[in-house]
């Protein structure tokens, strides 16, 4: 306590606290920075690398502040700048030369790559990003079916920035959450992984302030199968994407529809608490894998006469759901094997648990995975709730009449 009363100590403590709350961490003022929210990578028609950076426009982000006057702002609160060169770095440098502010990648959360560029390999993207200190390795990767610059034509109806729309696809579990870090880790073991695919369509009912964007719409559409860092010709469909999300434990809930064992009519349930384990197994020197998944479910709708009050009927319905999901997961695994891509990184599971077995087979792993390795898939669905009605409401109404 005596030490706290000494003037010298109190003065030193005050100086220390003042330095701790100092907000100056860089010589570059924020007002002199151009924060790239997203990076778009394409291959141009003449074979060069085409880079597009999306920037927010501070003078349009606050209503009534444009030009310092009191009038309302007009136009989108963002802009895109495109340049092409031999490399990504050179293209970014060309964008910088035309920019009045210093480009910063500290706010970049989305990287969109065109299919043509992805088929040749996205190693240049990983190389550029991993060497930028400000670039977050948690940035999400997306692939487009054609030119990646189609993204820039999407209207921002529900969100303020296009990058926010793409990030919402991730948070809403509508597509795969694959980051730069995930790809770098996969690249270390061969470069096989899944990347989310986007889709673009024209919808007359879509409204936008900009008439040129009235019909342009963006959504999710399956997944790209990457092999050795390059996009395969084989892709996952939108339905198969749900299976991939199920295997990678990236789903919170999923709609499951199966035929009733009593009359073949559809029964739909919502699966919850989805959990999946990928387990390597070595028996008699042979390497195999088990994919074990479980979830609880509640009945969403039914057009069947099945009596879910009966435990026997309930068990039959659970088995029908299980077979449906097992078939879906098997279809996804078979497609990745056809593409010779260990997209779910089973080699890493094997390396972590049985390093000696991995060292024995690593040179022929890709062939063994795609052609020889047994993969057992088992799903357990437990129906916890059958809803307020035991049988179909339509059938009950018909019987009453």
UniProtKB/TrEMBL annotation:
Protein's cellular compartments: Membrane
Matching InterPro entries: GerAC_N, Spore_GerAC-like, Spore_GerAC-like_C, Spore_GerAC_C_sf
Domain of life: Bacteria
Keywords: Germination, Lipoprotein, Membrane, Palmitate, Signal
Domain Spore germination protein N-terminal span(s) in chain numbering: 27-199
Protein's membrane topology: Lipid-anchor
Spore germination GerAC-like C-terminal domain boundaries: 221-387
PANTHER family: SPORE GERMINATION PROTEIN B3 (PTHR35789)
Family: Belongs to the GerABKC lipoprotein family.
Name by which UniProt lists this protein: Spore germination protein B3
Primary gene name: gerBC
